[in-house]
Write a structure and sequence with these properties.
Blueprint lengths: L11 H12 L6 H34 L3
Protein name: CopG family transcriptional regulator
Length: 66
């Protein structure tokens, strides 16, 4: 898998909690933890995105062309 380097500012307490999870062995490293958290967020919000697109399509269909 190809990786992309990103920079992000996190609240200090959130970063500390994440580092504690890594120290306790819940993730191999900080990068792994952040990638997994982002993956889970995207998976859990996929349905709402799809629903939003469907609603937009229905609205467009009901109202006609732009």
């Amino acid at each position: 898998m190809n990786n992309t380097l990103i920079e992000a500012e996190l609240p200090a307490e959130l970063a500390a909690q994440a580092r504690a999870f890594v120290a306790e062995g819940w993730a191999t490293d900080f990068n792994d933890l952040l990638a997994e958290a982002l993956r889970r967020f995207l998976e859990s919000h996929e349905a709402s995105l799809t629903e939003s697109f469907i609603k937009e399509d229905v609205e467009w269909g009901l109202r006609g062309r732009d």
